[in-house]
TrEMBL record:
One cellular component (GO) term of this entry: chloroplast
GO biological process, one term: post-embryonic development
Enzyme class: ligase
ATP-binding among keywords: yes
Keyword set, alphabetical order: Aminoacyl-tRNA synthetase, ATP-binding, Ligase, Nucleotide-binding, Protein biosynthesis
Enzyme Commission number(s): 6.1.1.2
Family recorded in the similarity comment: Belongs to the class-I aminoacyl-tRNA synthetase family.
Name this protein carries in UniProt: tryptophan--tRNA ligase
Record bears the keyword Membrane: no
Gene Ontology molecular-function annotations: ATP binding; tryptophan-tRNA ligase activity
Organism in which the protein naturally occurs: Citrus unshiu
Length: 336
């Protein structure tokens, strides 16, 4: 079986972007591949951090993986390397475990490119004739991994700004939906979204009259532009570059409901925000509820969680040891 490797940083809450861009796809792939999903704790120490909070967040992230439905190999990344610059650390995560594919969101693409270059370089320098002379198998030391970026969901945008991606570090928690958000929080998050309506009215002789409607609500979809006399306002549509929030919310609905883009486009083509918002809210709550219930169960069974992490770490360490042995030998180091 080909192997896939991926991970999430144990920082902040895991949000819909992490889920739709990565974790949900891991679950779809886990039966076809050998899998290693880790919690990349070493990546979380590049900024000042609280040590107790880090181990707590690592366990919580592991519980989220399990609650989302990851049910075979898992591991806590626990590789004894010093603090390296971030992209190189990520490359070593991947190369150490001889991964064929790496399912990630679009923002990781450039890191994967660096990873591939590093693998090719090491294979070129040490994997050829020199390696054979040493009695090794010859050929590649590292597998050159390929990214698996999902066709939809690879870039989930902020709820309130369709031009920036949903992110753990955005200051407003209301710009994202976290997997563990309770029902009423999700209801409010969607209900209080309001678009920044610009009515454009074209009349003979008067060129363009723009009326900015006063914002009543707390949060705005910043750029929902709607034309007036053509009577297209408030109709929901995918792929209108002037309405990125509309596209994002429809895409989230598509992924979370499991429908196709065509089905959603048809279902929502005559809807306004007032009809769509409860639909999206219900779909999110329905999808996240079983994950949240399972998360609580897992968190209350610490022996189970510890075992999963220990088994995963042992398996990951075996693979990493074999790779490191090869690398040491190919590069002429004595194994320490
Ligand atoms: P991290 O923790 O920032 O994000 C984890 C995964 O979630 C994806 N993601 C998104 N996908 C769609 N829309 C979004 N708004 C969004 N935000 C985040 C990310 O693409 C990622 O797949 N460097 C990585 C962690 C890492 C890793 C690795 C991944 C370290 N070593 C080895 C794969 C293999 C990171 O910081 O992800």
């Amino acid at each position: 079986k080909k192997r896939i490797v991926s991970g999430v940083q144990p920082t902040g809450s895991i949000h819909l972007g992490n889920y739709l861009g990565a974790i949900k796809n891991w679950i779809a792939l886990q039966n076809s591949y050998e899998t290693l999903f880790f919690i990349v704790d070493l990546h979380a120490i590049t900024l000042p951090y609280d040590t107790q909070q880090l181990s707590k967040a690592t366990r919580e992230t592991a519980a989220i993986y399990l609650a989302c439905g990851i049910d075979n190999s898992k591991g806590d990344e626990n590789v004894g390397v010093a603090l390296l610059t971030y992209p190189v650390l990520m490359a070593s995560d991947i190369l150490l475990y001889q991964s064929d594919f790496v399912p990630v969101g679009e923002d990781q693409k450039q890191h994967l490119e660096l990873t591939r270059e590093l693998a090719e370089r090491v294979n070129y320098l040490y994997g050829g004739r020199k390696w054979k002379k040493l009695g090794g198998r010859g050929g590649a030391i590292f597998k050159v991994p390929e990214p698996l970026i999902p066709p939809a969901g690879a870039r989930v945008m902020s709820l309130t700004d369709g031009l920036s991606k949903m992110s753990k570090s955005a200051p407003s928690d209301q710009s994202r939906i976290n997997l563990l958000d309770p029902k009423d929080r999700i209801e409010d998050d969607i209900r209080f979204l309001e678009y920044n309506l610009t009515l454009t009215c074209r009349l003979p002789l008067i060129n363009i009259l723009e009326i900015d409607v006063i914002h009543v609500y707390k949060r705005k979809l910043v750029s929902d532009v709607v034309s007036f006399l053509s009577l297209t306002f408030a109709i929901l549509e995918f792929d209108n570059l002037e309405r990125p929030e509309c596209n994002n919310l429809l895409s989230i609905y598509q992924l979370i409901s499991g429908k196709t883009k065509g089905e959603v486009a048809e279902e929502c083509q005559n809807m306004n925000w007032g009809t769509f918002k409860p639909l999206l809210t219900d779909a999110l709550i329905e999808h996240l509820h079983p994950i949240q219930v399972r998360y609580e169960e897992i968190m209350s069974d610490s022996a189970y969680l510890d075992k999963v992490l220990a088994d995963g770490a042992a398996k990951a360490a075996d693979i990493a040891d074999a790779t490191l042995n090869n690398v040491y030998q190919a590069m002429g180091f004595l194994r320490r």
